[in-house]
């Protein structure tokens, strides 16, 4: 049998789990179910049946988070491919398939979104093994989730009744209304569309070449013209942007004659809302699922997530989520409307839709503690060996006070070392760089002052992370 090569799709930036998940730090990088992040759990789940190192396709803006989290769980991807723009799943999988054929004669691609939860991993592995036998014969296999309720939030797959684990696909169906969903579930022939697939790399590319040759040509060009280094494959922006944007369902699966489905009953969830996260979370005897420092008095079927003390009294079917800069409270049955909150925030030009107060960078992170008309205070943490870019600012000066660790500071033509309780001043217009030369994290307080304090007031001269 050909090796099973996991393809992990991590390009999403969804905000249905706002305020915890945001565009700059979406849910696949969060530990929502268990101690590992969703991305890490996806690899851990696939590793026992993988016959080759994974290919990970990620948003260019998330590249350092993806690389760091994979390193933390001892995953050594065959490639971390970066999308400069989003083009949906069909082109992303085509890129992975093209790269897989460059690594192997052929392989079975196990395509997995990076933000799903599966409780029964043994059942997941059994379904993959069943799908692999069909994929070896040329079938393009999807995994259909055995429905336990008439869910209107998922698309459905109608399968033939024949087949011992692998069935032919009769039809892909859009999200139904409630009465139709009840009919689907009662029939026993319909399954939720999971968005997971298994097929030969060569087989997928052959079908895509027949069904959407322009997409395949754009993907080939984007990969051939990619910028490659030891960490990333950066797709050519112009070539990839020229690809049609489409999902694998619309581009291939709904049109091919060789679509097959393997039913899977493994406690699957796409964790697409706070209500879905409540469903897959461990609960107490009253149905409450709480994460963090939570006190509840006479509450039932609630969900709470936060870092500070959350006190809940007499609530039922309520979701409470707290972050450093936002609190969201909603009824569990209406929590999908959080998308309307995010839309309002974007319309008002506020930053809370895209970024948290704490912002992660390849060298570490910064947390904006306070700000006013002409000042801003940040707590900066630099990882051992981390280095900020050599840069200057046109509109602000900076004071740095070391709280712990050692800082190597480049300021104009001089280089100085600062330790705990020492400080320095960076005048407006002076080139500077901050580095942690030690083995422990460097923590410092930065006080900015000036007429403009935006992050776009940075002129970079050198950067070891390839940023402009």
Description:
By secondary structure, this protein is of the alpha/beta class. The chain has 11 helices and 30 strands. A 6-stranded antiparallel beta sheet has the order 20-21-22-29-24-27, with no helix packed on it. It has a 5-stranded mixed barrel with strand order 6-9-7-8-12. A hairpin with a 4-residue loop joins strand 18 (about 320) and strand 19. Helix 3 (about 90-105) packs across helix 6 (about 200-210) and helix 3 crosses helix 7. The chain is globular and about 75 Å long. The two termini are about 45 Å apart. The mean pLDDT is about 95.
Count of alpha/pi helices: 11
* Overall pLDDT level: 94
Q: Catalogue the unreliable spans.
A: none
**Major sheet: size, sense and barrel closure?**
6 strands, antiparallel
Q: From the helix content, strand content and strand pairing, which structural class follows?
A: alpha/beta
- How far is the N terminus from the C terminus? 45 Å
Q: List how many beta strands DSSP finds.
A: 30
Give the strand order, joined by hyphens, for the main sheet: 20-21-22-29-24-27
Helix content: 10-25%
Instruction: Sum up the overall morphology in one term.
Output: globular
Radius of gyration: 24 Å
Share of β-strand residues? 25-35%
């Amino acid at each position: 049998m050909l090796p099973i090569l996991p393809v992990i799709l991590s390009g999403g930036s969804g905000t249905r789990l706002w305020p915890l998940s945001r565009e700059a730090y979406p849910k696949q990088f969060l530990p929502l179910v268990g101690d590992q992040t969703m991305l890490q759990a996806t690899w851990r789940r696939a590793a026992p049946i993988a016959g080759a190192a994974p290919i990970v396709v990620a948003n260019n803006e998330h590249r350092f988070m993806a690389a760091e989290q994979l390193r933390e769980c001892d995953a050594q991807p065959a490639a971390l491919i970066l999308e400069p723009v989003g083009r949906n799943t069909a082109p992303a999988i085509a890129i992975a398939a093209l790269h897989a054929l460059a690594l192997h004669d052929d392989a079975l691609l196990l395509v997995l979104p990076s933000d799903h939860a599966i409780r029964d991993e043994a059942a997941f592995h059994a379904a993959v093994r069943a799908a692999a036998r069909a994929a070896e014969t040329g079938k393009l296999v999807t995994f259909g989730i055995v429905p336990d309720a008439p869910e209107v939030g998922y698309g459905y797959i109608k399968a033939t009744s024949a087949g011992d684990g692998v069935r032919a696909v009769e039809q892909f169906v859009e999200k139904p209304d409630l009465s139709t969903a009840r009919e689907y579930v009662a029939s026993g022939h319909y399954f939720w569309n999971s968005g997971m697939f298994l097929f030969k790399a060569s087989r997928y590319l052959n079908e895509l070449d027949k069904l959407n040759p322009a997409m395949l040509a754009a993907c080939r060009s984007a990969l051939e013209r990619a910028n490659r280094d030891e960490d990333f494959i950066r797709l050519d922006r112009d070539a990839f942007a020229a690809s049609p944007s489409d999902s694998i369902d619309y581009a291939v699966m709904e049109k091919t004659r060789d679509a097959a489905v393997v039913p899977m009953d493994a406690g699957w969830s796409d964790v697409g809302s706070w209500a879905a996260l409540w469903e897959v979370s461990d609960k107490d005897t009253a149905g409450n699922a709480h994460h963090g420092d939570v006190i509840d008095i006479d509450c039932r079927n609630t969900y709470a997530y936060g870092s500070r003390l959350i006190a809940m009294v007499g609530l039922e079917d309520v979701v409470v989520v707290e972050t450093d800069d936002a609190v969201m409270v909603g009824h569990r049955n209406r929590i999908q409307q959080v998308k309307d909150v995010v839309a309002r925030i974007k319309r008002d030009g506020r930053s809370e839709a895209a970024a948290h107060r704490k912002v992660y960078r390849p060298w570490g992170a910064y947390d904006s503690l306070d700000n006013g008309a002409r000042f801003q205070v940040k707590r900066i943490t630099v990882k051992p060996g981390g280095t900020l870019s050599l840069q200057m600012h046109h509109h602000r000066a900076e004071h740095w006070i070391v709280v712990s660790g050692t800082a190597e500071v480049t300021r104009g033509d001089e280089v100085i070392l600062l330790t705990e309780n020492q400080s320095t001043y960076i005048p407006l217009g002076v080139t500077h760089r901050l580095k942690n030369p030690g083995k422990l994290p460097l923590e410092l307080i930065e006080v900015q002052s000036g007429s403009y304090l935006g992050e776009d007031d940075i002129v970079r001269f050198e950067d070891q992370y390839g940023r402009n």
